[in-house]
Write a structure and sequence with these properties.
The protein is an alpha/beta fold and 354 residues long. The protein has two domains: 11-132 and 302-325, Rossmann fold; 137-295 and 333-350, Dihydrodipicolinate Reductase, domain 2 (2-Layer Sandwich). The chain has helices spanning 20-33, 46-56, 65-69, 86-95, 110-123, 137-147, 181-197, 296-309, 328-350, and strands spanning 11-16, 36-42, 60-61, 76-79, 99-103, 127-130, 156-166, 211-217, 223-233, 236-245, 249-256, 259-264, 274-282, 285-294.
Length: 354
């Protein structure tokens, strides 16, 4: 049970992974927002866990992940391990009776997602994927433009995303641990596609198969530059161009029959509370729609804290689904597409075409 100094409803987090993303996504937002309290950390290397705790003011270091999951004061767990370990430890944490926030991608297959859901049901808890761009107002505005079929832009015909991250280190170089650019970048692309096509999506499977071309392979076999394309709904072409490079860059372009809308630098609010601008071009000219500054990680932790406060089965909106997996419908569809993307990419690599 939480200690007396924990306000009612506030989650007490344990961190599986002494990582930079754990500091940015949970420790620092918890201090800024008060939405949660971070009690403990565990890592594969206890020395690294102790160094992390000293740097970030985390009061308890557990020697093993199992020890952390047995801590009676912890009510929620954040998982930020290598991608191939996300689903396993999310399920273990859920079975221990803790809510779980698991870094994207939450899982690499539908089978893993099924296991997470069953674990959450057994533990009576909720599991959420940490996809920081969830609920971005600029993307919601794009969905409004798509829904306005008779408006100045006309029908949506294309969604084009480009993402560049700095050169990989650690597990991101290793395909057997879920490394590579595709698993890093594709969740943002697929989420944008989901949001933009929601007004015209019948819920059916994509109109066509996913095509993936691996442009560059790293020394250890991970994909380092990729292009992907598919039709999420008939008549709409979605493409992704992603790779590792010298700096971070990210943008979406939404192409309509009579114009386009561009959202540049959509990952910038991960660094600070920064505004986003949506540039809209029609036959009548160009205008810019400005959105209030938002810090992605602060907004994410506040949103997740609210979700975890809702009993399983009582959610709506992003909480829809069985109730044990937050946004289960959206996560299921993203996972299905992500699984197909991986298959296509590594068929190409195994076939020697990259």
């Amino acid at each position: 049970m939480p200690t007396e100094r924990t306000p009612p409803g506030q989650q007490v987090f344990g961190l599986l992974g002494a990582t930079g993303i754990a500091a940015r996504a949970v420790v620092e937002p918890a201090a800024r927002t008060g939405a949660a309290r971070v009690r403990a950390v565990a890592a594969g290397d206890p020395v690294r866990a102790r160094a992390f705790a000293a740097e970030h003011g985390v009061p308890v270091v557990h020697e093993t992940y199992a020890d952390l999951l047995a801590d009676p004061e912890i009510t929620a767990v954040y998982v930020s391990l290598h991608n191939s370990a996300h689903a396993w430890w999310a399920a273990q944490a859920a079975r221990s009776g803790r809510h779980v926030l698991v870094e994207k991608p939450a899982c690499l297959s539908l089978r893993e997602l099924h296991g997470i859901r069953r674990a959450a049901e057994a533990g009576g808890v909720r599991v959420a994927e940490a996809l920081m761009t969830t609920g971005v107002p600029a993307l919601a505005r794009v969905a409004d433009l798509v829904a306005d079929f008779d408006g100045p832009l006309g029908e949506l015909i294309g969604i084009h995303t480009h993402i560049t991250f700095t050169a990989p280190t650690g597990y991101r170089r290793l395909p057997e641990l879920g490394g590579g650019i595709l698993l890093d970048a594709a969740p943002y692309w697929l989420q944008a596609v989901q949001v933009a096509t929601q007004p015209i999506d019948s819920g059916r499977v994509p109109a066509g198969p996913i095509a993936v071309e691996v442009k560059s392979e790293g020394p250890d076999g991970a994909d380092e530059a990729c292009e992907a394309a598919f039709e999420p709904v008939p008549g709409v072409q979605a493409t992704l161009s992603c790779g590792f490079g010298e700096r971070h860059a990210a943008g979406h372009e939404f192409v309509f029959a009579r114009g386009h809308a561009r959202l540049r630098g959509f990952l910038r609010p991960a660094a600070a509370a920064l505004p986003l601008n949506l540039s809209v071009v029609t036959g009548g000219g160009r205008h810019v729609e400005a959105f209030a500054p938002v810090h992605y990680y602060d907004a994410q932790l506040l949103r997740i804290a609210r979700s975890f406060a809702v009993p399983p089965g009582g959610g709506s909106g992003h909480d829809r689904g069985s109730g044990h997996v937050v946004d289960e419908i959206g996560l299921t569809r993203r996972t299905s597409l992500l699984e197909e993307l991986q298959r296509a990419a590594y068929e190409a690599l195994l076939g020697g075409t990259a």
